[in-house]
């Protein structure tokens, strides 16, 4: 039996449905390992066959080109990678756990601290990789340690200090994130429920969730007090459309897939935004989304 058949590796796997932007070509090879042993075997087999390895979470904050993904794309989607457990005020969760499930688990304990992630359609692993956050809060602030696998198949634990979280960045780029321990605090269920509702309402009021999107496209520039969305709006670009991609009228830092948009439509809009903002405000916007070309 070939390793591809043994590990249920699919070829030429469509990826549009695996991203929140609903854009992207196929993965050359795609697999969802059942556990650590299979993940390690996949890594080793990819190495033997000179295949680059990538990992995808829920596919938010991600733009995949029409050419798709070369090599092996891994999704940690089995129950093993979605386990959530509790010890004192610490929650340990697999990287494949959806943020919504994590928030619900904490609420039932009742533990507070992660409500600000309510409404983000991502996994814990994806959130850790980019140090996801909003309204002055970041997931990295909650981390005690993260269990990772390197691309040779070795497993280790990293402390928050070793990871060096910063604005929309982490030191986890050279690893496959397996799980994390987060430190939360006791709170009444009533307060936690109110927090969750408040954050979801904030999102609904400020973000355009009616069309497929990848979340905020650009990072807020550190050199200015204004956020990226405000800068784009001041350049008069709300509603600007190229192909099937359009800058949101509700939040200018969102690009929406309004119907059969492709990656090039989004990239052209991003280039236009960067040019206009650079010309008007003398600042170069840095992408917040990952771009796989």
TrEMBL record:
Q: Where is the signal peptide?
A: none
Give the pathway. Cell wall biogenesis; peptidoglycan biosynthesis
Query: Record's superkingdom?
Result: Bacteria
Q: Where found, per UniProt?
A: Cytoplasm
Q: Which cofactor does it need?
A: FAD
As its record notes, the protein acts as a catalyst of: UDP-N-acetyl-alpha-D-muramate + NADP(+) = UDP-N-acetyl-3-O-(1-carboxyvinyl)-alpha-D-glucosamine + NADPH + H(+)
The record's Gene Ontology biological-process terms are: cell division; cell wall organization; peptidoglycan biosynthetic process; regulation of cell shape
Q: Where is the active site?
A: 168, 216 (proton donor), 288
Q: Show the Pfam families listed in the entry.
A: FAD_binding_4, MurB_C
Domain (FAD-binding PCMH-type): residue spans on this chain: 22-187
Q: Name one GO cellular component term.
A: cytosol
This entry's Enzyme Commission designation comes to 1.3.1.98
Q: Which InterPro entries match?
A: FAD-bd_PCMH (IPR016166), FAD-bd_PCMH-like_sf (IPR036318), FAD-bd_PCMH_sub1 (IPR016167), FAD-bd_PCMH_sub2 (IPR016169), MurB (IPR003170), MurB_C (IPR011601), MurB_C_sf (IPR036635), Oxid_FAD_bind_N (IPR006094)
Q: Which UniProt keywords apply?
A: Cell cycle, Cell division, Cell shape, Cell wall biogenesis/degradation, Cytoplasm, FAD, Flavoprotein, NADP, Oxidoreductase, Peptidoglycan synthesis
A molecular-function term among this protein's GO annotations: FAD binding
Family named by the database record: Belongs to the MurB family.
Task: Fetch the PANTHER family from UniProt.
Answer: UDP-N-ACETYLENOLPYRUVOYLGLUCOSAMINE REDUCTASE
Q: What does this protein do?
A: Cell wall formation.
Name this protein carries in UniProt: UDP-N-acetylenolpyruvoylglucosamine reductase
Q: Which organism is it from?
A: Candidatus Sherwoodlollariibacterium unditelluris
| Gene encoding the protein | murB
């Amino acid at each position: 039996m070939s390793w591809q058949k043994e590990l249920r590796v699919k070829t030429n796997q469509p990826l549009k449905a695996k991203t929140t932007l609903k854009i992207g070509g196929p993965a050359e090879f795609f697999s969802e390992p059942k556990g650590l042993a299979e993940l390690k075997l996949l890594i080793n087999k990819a190495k033997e066959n000179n295949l680059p390895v990538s990992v995808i979470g829920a596919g938010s904050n991600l733009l995949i080109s029409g050419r798709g993904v070369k090599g092996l794309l891994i999704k940690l989607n089995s129950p093993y990678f979605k386990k959530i457990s509790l010890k004192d005020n610490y929650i340990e969760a697999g990287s494949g756990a959806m943020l919504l499930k994590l928030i619900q688990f904490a609420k039932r304990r009742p533990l507070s601290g992660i409500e600000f992630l309510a409404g983000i359609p991502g996994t814990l692993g994806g959130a850790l990789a980019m140090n996801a956050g909003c309204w002055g809060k970041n997931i990295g602030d909650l981390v005690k340690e993260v269990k990772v696998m390197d691309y040779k198949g070795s497993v280790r634990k990293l402390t928050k200090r070793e990871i060096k979280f910063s604005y929309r960045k982490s030191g986890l780029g050279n690893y496959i994130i397996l799980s994390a321990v987060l430190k939360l605090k006791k709170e009444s269920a009533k307060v936690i429920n109110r927090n969750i509702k408040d954050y979801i309402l904030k999102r609904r009021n400020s973000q355009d969730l009616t069309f497929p999107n990848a979340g905020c496209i650009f990072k807020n520039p550190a050199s200015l007090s204004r956020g990226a969305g405000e800068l784009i709006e001041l350049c008069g670009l709300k509603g600007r459309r190229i192909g099937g991609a359009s800058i949101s009228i509700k939040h200018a830092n969102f690009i929406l897939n309004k119907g059969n948009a492709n990656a090039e439509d989004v990239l052209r809009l991003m280039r236009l935004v960067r040019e206009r903002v650079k010309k008007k405000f003398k600042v170069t916007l840095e992408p917040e989304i990952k771009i796989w070309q």
